[in-house]
Design a protein that fits this description.
By secondary structure, the chain is mainly α. The chain has helices spanning 2-12, 15-31, 35-38, 40-46, 59-70, 77-86, 90-114, 127-135, 138-172, 176-191, 194-223, 228-239, 250-265, 272-276, 284-313, 343-353, 358-388, 396-414, 418-441, 443-458, 477-486, and strands spanning 117-119, 122-124, 317-319, 331-334. It has 21 helices and four strands. Strand 1 (117-119) and strand 2 form a beta hairpin. The chain is globular, with a radius of gyration of 22 Å. The chain starts with a helix and ends with a helix. It holds the Pfam family Na_Ala_symp. GO terms for molecular function: amino acid:sodium symporter activity. The chain crosses the membrane at residues 12-30, 67-86, 92-115, 136-156, 176-195, 204-225, 231-254, 293-312, 360-380, 396-414, 426-450. Belongs to the alanine or glycine:cation symporter (AGCS) (TC 2.A.25) family.
Length: 487
């Protein structure tokens, strides 16, 4: 079974998906005239635009919720893995993916806003919604929603819970069932409070989590700041095969950098649009730009913090792809002996500067990173449950989802979940394929919305949205939103 699932996973997460993600990012960057550069100042300004209402959350709350999904274990373990198998040059390719992916994130988030709906008093939207309303292919939207519920609601949360439980056990010697029960109780306290409580939780926890982690990394980097120019030079030399020491992993630097960049910032995967749709804004482009900025935060800030911390302390290994052949050494570089690839690199880097502190801090960081990801998974699953049950004005389906996820979290905490992770990866990979195909086919409304926003900005207006102005006739919720914003 594991071999079969692994084979399917390898097909879905093949180089074709990597090329598709990169190519889509480049295409949308060109089509939007590199909005990720032109509107960078506007992105930052809009972070604090829009207010929370009974129906939707503020722009900053939506940003925090999306970062809860983007900023996860991939920012610690994923970066370490990219460097281990792709060398320091993998960092550059992660940056490139983030830069191009910001345009993809804009398109999918803007579409989610355009085609969002209201269910049980809350704004809901995402790929399933814009696939059905924008493309007019309901079965495609239903299929996406089913895959999303299974993946985000039933498989991946258990794996994240397993990471939390193992991290706490390694650092504090606490039994996994105890930490599992603790996670279940906190999870229940948050999600039974509804989307407003989820937004409030992430609004406070995510900035604290990311800023705290980056501050520790900055301190470690500052201690050896004289090495930073050489480290940056090494990243660029390795990325373009100009460093003889890492020439053997030049191709792998691209492969692993792109893979881990996509996995971390999620641009194009179809996860963040669910959260983007919940924002209460006067124009869809506002949340599109905010979500573009979240890609920068995830990769250019948090991932870079991990990468520079590893490189500047030298606490990492780079595996030799030729290992196993005659006279081949196992490592091209070995600075973290007897340390398995993953969070251990980061723990070693921190311990080298603050002895005895690294293991505890990384365990705590992993807890917050993984737990907030579980909360994001819940919201994604709940949004797709809402899509599938729109004709039933009853919250019972959401209560069932909460109960299922509580069981999954507890089970995942006390059991190994490798198979569930592989199956979950298949679900996420399918979401990415479905979503990218959808936004390529449905790009016109998002691009038209961008032109409409820029036109109003040039007139000195605070842009508002009328879908009929851009030729969209089935986004009826916006007539109500516009009236409310004018009150």
């Amino acid at each position: 079974m594991e071999d079969f699932v692994g084979t399917i996973n390898g097909i879905i997460w093949s180089d074709a998906l990597i090329v598709l993600c990169l190519g889509t990012g480049l295409y949308f960057s060109l089509r939007t005239r590199f909005l990720q550069v032109r509107h960078f100042k506007e992105m930052f300004r809009l972070l604090f635009d829009g207010k929370s209402t009974e129906s939707g959350v503020s722009s900053f709350q939506a940003l925090s919720m999306s970062l809860a999904g983007r900023v996860g274990t991939g920012n610690i373990a994923g970066v370490a893995t990219a460097i281990a198998f792709g060398g320091p040059g993998a960092m550059f390719w992660m940056w490139l993916v983030a830069f191009l992916g910001a345009s993809t994130a804009f398109i999918e988030a803007t579409l989610a806003q355009i085609y969002k709906e209201k269910h049980l008093g809350q704004f809901r939207g995402g790929p399933a919604f814009y696939i059905e309303r924008g493309l007019g292919v309901k079965w495609f939207g239903v299929l996406f929603a089913i895959v999303s519920v299974i993946s985000a609601g039933m498989l991946l949360p258990g794996v994240q819970a397993n990471s939390v439980a193992d991290g706490i056990k390694n650092a504090f010697q606490l039994d996994t069932w105890i930490s599992g029960l603790f996670v279940v109780l906190i999870f229940a306290a948050i999600v039974f409070g509804g989307v407003k409580r989820i937004a409030k939780f992430t609004e406070y926890i995510v900035p604290f989590m990311a800023i705290g982690y980056m501050l520790i990394a900055v301190v470690i980097i500052a201690i050896d700041i004289k090495q930073l120019p050489d480290v940056i030079a090494l990243v660029f030399k390795s990325a373009f095969n100009m460093d003889a020491g890492f020439g053997a992993v030049f191709g792998l630097a691209i492969q692993w950098g792109v893979k881990r960049g996509i996995y971390s910032n999620e641009a194009g995967q179809g996860t963040a649009p669910h959260i983007a749709a919940a924002a209460n804004v006067s124009h869809p482009v506002k949340q599109g730009l905010v979500q573009s900025f979240s890609v920068y935060i995830d990769t250019l800030l948090v991932c870079s913090a991990t990468g520079f911390m590893l490189l500047i302390t030298g606490k990492y290994n780079v595996y030799n792809p030729a290992f196993g052949s005659a006279n081949a050494a196992e490592f091209l570089y070995s600075g973290a002996q007897n340390v398995a690839v993953g969070p251990g690199f980061t723990q070693s880097a921190m311990d080298s500067v603050f002895p005895g502190f690294g293991s505890y801090f990384v365990a705590i960081a992993l807890f917050f990173f993984a737990f907030t990801t579980i909360i994001a998974y819940y919201y994604i699953a709940e949004t797709n449950v809402s899509y599938l049950t729109r004709k039933f004005e009853s919250p019972v389906f959401n209560y069932v989802l909460k109960a299922v996820m509580m069981f999954v979290i507890m089970y995942g905490s006390i059991n190994q979940a490798k198979l569930a992770w592989d199956i979950g990866d298949i679900g996420v990979g399918l979401m990415a394929w479905f979503n990218i195909i959808a936004i390529i086919l449905l790009q016109k409304p998002a691009l038209a919305a961008l032109k409409d926003y820029e036109r109003q900005k040039k007139l000195g207006l605070d842009p508002t949205f009328n879908p009929e102005d851009i030729g969209v006739n089935n986004a009826h919720i916006w007539s109500t939103i516009t009236k409310n914003n004018q009150v």
